[in-house]
Design brief:
It is a single chain. The protein is mainly β and 276 residues long. It has four domains: 7-62, Beta Barrel (OB fold (Dihydrolipoamide Acetyltransferase, E2P)), CATH 2.40.50.140; 73-133, OB fold (Dihydrolipoamide Acetyltransferase, E2P) (Beta Barrel); 148-206, Nucleic acid-binding proteins (OB fold (Dihydrolipoamide Acetyltransferase, E2P), Beta Barrel), CATH 2.40.50.140; 210-275, Orthogonal Bundle (Arc Repressor Mutant, subunit A). 13% of the residues lie in helices and 38% in strands. It has helices at 213-226, 239-246, 250-262; strands at residues 7-15, 19-23, 29-33, 46-53, 59-62, 73-81, 85-89, 96-99, 112-119, 126-129, 148-156, 160-165, 169-174, 187-195, 201-204, 230-231, 266-269, 272-275. The chain has a five-stranded antiparallel beta sheet with strand order 3-2-1-4-5, with no helix packed on it. Strands 8-7-6-9-10 form a five-stranded antiparallel beta sheet, with no helix packed on it. The chain has a five-stranded mixed beta barrel with strand order 11-12-13-15-14. The radius of gyration is 25 Å and the shape is elongated.
Length: 276
């Protein structure tokens, strides 16, 4: 089967005036127009292509790499907008359409928006939606506490930053767990810090609890080595100073320092930490 909105590995069947016809194992065919035909090929070769609908709603193949495929969440630029919807640059000749009803906020030309690409059931066209939450669900979780997850920054809230977890769930990074600048669309690795009774997910960009001690201790050792064996930080240091220098909370800092001290790797004095 040839999958719309996805990469397909197909076989070159025949060379024609408009281009190469490609096929799968189920006798389905699609045209690869001349502009995308490789310089060297043989009938029977396999080729990876992206499949979508062209301006005349015909299924077509391309060797171009779009910025987004079906099922993805990506930030795209709006090239044009009218009363029907917006036309987004996704790296292909035909722009990706985002209907007006699928816009969380009215899109404007030149703006950048986090969108989800999906196949419309009525028209069978690939379209975009900035109402990303409707494609996510926490009803049946596929993650547990302490799992490492893929995170996409979605939008800010009063409590921190909302994120998309593994392209399936929604989560929240609380302000206290944000130690660097985050922008909508950023893709990061995170940890499930807590699973709440209502299946809401608390996400952190660092390790959690006892699991955070060793990585944070390593980070402090690196800073000590880079600063001639001394850090002007103590348990009385301002939390913002610790966060700015080490990208960790004061609580994590104190745990990590305690670990290094017990291992006799550092000495703690009134003016700071010394590497032994």
């Amino acid at each position: 089967m040839i999958h719309l909105g996805e990469y397909n590995t197909l076989t070159i069947l025949r060379d024609t005036d408009p281009g190469l016809f490609l096929g799968d194992n189920d006798n389905n065919e699609v045209l690869l127009p001349n502009r995308y035909v490789p310089e060297y090929f043989e009938i029977g070769d396999e080729i990876e292509v992206f499949v979508y609908l062209d301006n005349e709603e015909r299924i077509i193949a391309t060797t171009d790499k779009p910025y987004i495929k079906k099922g993805d969440f990506v930030v795209l630029r709006c090239n044009e907008a009218n009363q029907y919807g917006a036309f987004l640059d996704w790296g292909l000749v035909k722009e990706l359409f985002c209907p007006f009803k699928e816009q969380a906020f009215k899109m404007q030309k030149g703006g950048w928006y986090l969108v989800h690409c999906y196949e419309d059931e009525k028209s069978n066209r690939l379209v975009a939606s900035s109402k990303t939450n409707r494609f996510l669900s926490n009803k049946e979780l596929t993650v547990e506490q302490f799992d490492e997850v893929d995170v996409i920054v979605s939008h800010p809230s009063d409590f921190g930053m909302n994120v998309i977890v593994n392209n399936i769930h929604t989560g929240l990074i609380f302000k206290d767990d944000i130690y660097k600048d985050l922008s909508v669309g950023d893709k990061l690795k995170g940890i499930v810090k807590k699973v709440r009774p209502d299946n809401k997910l608390d996400i952190t960009l660092g390790q959690v609890g006892y699991r955070s001690i060793e990585p944070n201790a390593d980070a402090i050792m690196v800073e000590l080595q880079d600063n001639n064996g001394f850090l002007n930080l103590t348990d009385k240091s301002d939390p913002e100073t610790i966060r700015e220098l080490l990208q960790m909370s004061k609580k994590s800092f104190k745990k990590a320092v305690g670990t290094l001290y017990k291992k006799r790797l550092i000495d703690i004095k009134e003016d700071g930490i010394y590497l032994l």
